[in-house]
Amino acid sequence: MAKIVRKNYLLTPGPAPVPTEILLAGAQETIHHRTPQYLEIQKKALEGLKYLFQTENRVFTLLSSGTGAMEAAVANIMSPGDEAIVVVGGKFGERWRDICKAYGVVVHEIAIEWGAAVTPEQIKEKLEEYPNTKAVFTTLSETSTGVVTDVEAISKILEGTNVLHVTDAISGLLAQPLKMDEWKLDVVVAGSQKGLMMPPGLAFIALSERALEVVRASTNHRYYFDLRAYDKSYPDSPYTPGINLVYQLARAVEMLYEEGIENVWERHRLLADATRAGVKALGLELFAKRPGNVLTAVKIPEGIDGKKLVGYMRNEWGVTIAGGQAHLKGKIMRIAHLGWMSPFDTITALSALEMALDKFGYKVELGAGVKAAEEVFRREDI
Ligand SMILES: *Cc1c(COP(=O)(O)O)cnc(C)c1O
Question: Is there an atom of ligand 1 within 6 Å of 92 CB?
């Protein structure tokens, strides 16, 4: 067997690849965060975030992974004994539920089979059953299953009520169309290591005016994630910000602004379409019933150990895709098309996949997946 050069290809739904330009933006001298020079950079980054969230409201930046922003959402708008409807169709819906429970929130769970999507009717029914509900928690892109939620339709159900719509867009932001203001989303959370093309370390939370009112009135215990402090010091930070990460954020928002948000959404849609065409051409089945543009979840064919397959691609060839989580370990694989990726990342993923399947004894025509993806790219005249 010939030895091949070890080169890494990151094709996971977080962390996602980071372009050199953004890496280098972080490699600038760390200056003091209470200087006008620094504040100017932070202001630019914060303004850019409004565009990415499609909101006129403030987007707060927290120094944590995405889960910190989820916790901030719960801690700031929910108090012990408050009622929440939580959509649980995967690992991240479970996280909403668990954070709510940790804060003493009374959770009315809508349990969705993993791989399926919640319908607006299910939200409507649950709301009729529990009219004292204060907030509905959804996940734009459920990263553990690849399912995208129709958050716009869910907001329509909530129109005319005081129920807040809180959505986890940590993986979905930029990969999926999201218009916070137009769709009347009250709280949207995101993280830096996904569609934003950054390393992990920053989390973002945007709130509607009425959500901010709830935050101000809330008496719940909180400190580091007390959004009143972030609101008060905005656009400055209440504590030491992630200075070098904010340099990267400023560069990332600039790149995304130059590209244009519609183009960013479109580029994710294109890679998602090509990936799906590729895996289907290999005779594989999609796992998600309502697949989104963050990742493609694919069922592992009968008789193949999914963990070994994914491990082989990573260890032997440096091609890292994600396996399944929780009870889906070994049963699905997740190929991301998130963030800094081009059609040739998708080609690499499909090529490695068909070669690995071949090694593992699955009957595959080498090149069939790649060909199907290339045909999508040709049809769309890239
Ligand atoms: C990645 C992810 C998270 C968790 O983010 P961390 O940065 O690991 O805390 C939460 N929700 C979704 C949908 C994600 O994809």
Answer: yes
- Regarding whether 118 and 45 lie in a shared domain, the answer is yes
- Ligand 1 proximity of 325 Cβ (cutoff 6 Å): no
Distance 93 CA to ligand 1 centre (A): 10
Task: Write the DSSP assignment of 350-369 as a string of letters.
Answer: HHHHHHHHHHTT----TTHH
Give the pLDDT score at 3.
85
Q: At which of 212, 231, 259 does a domain end?
A: 259
Determine the atom of ligand 1 nearest the C-alpha atom of 169: 13
- Best mutation site among 61, 63, 67, 138 for ligand 1, i.e. most ligand atoms within 8 A of its Cβ? 67
Residue length of the chain: 382
Per the structure, the count of domains in the chain is 2
Residue 225, Ramachandran bin (φ over 0: left; ψ between -120 and 50: alpha; else beta): alpha
For residue 65, give the ligand 1 atom closest to its CA.
Answer: 7
pLDDT digits (tens, 9 = 90+) for 125-138: 999 999 999 999 99
- pLDDT given at position 5: 86
- The pLDDT tens digits for 167-185 are 999 999 999 999 999 999 9
If asked whether residues 99 and 230 sit together in one domain, one would say yes
| Amino acid 287: pLDDT | 98
Which of 216, 233, 259 corresponds to the end of one domain?
A: 259
> Residue 361 is part of which domain span?
9-16+261-380
Closest CA to 328 of 358, 349, 297: 297
Residue 149 tokens, joined: 């939620």
**pLDDT value at position 381?**
94
In this prediction, the residues of the chain whose per-residue pLDDT falls under 50 are none
**Whole-number pLDDT of residue 219:** 85
Nearest of 222, 249, 226, 248 to residue 239 by alpha carbon:
226
**How confident is the model at residue 136, as a pLDDT?**
98
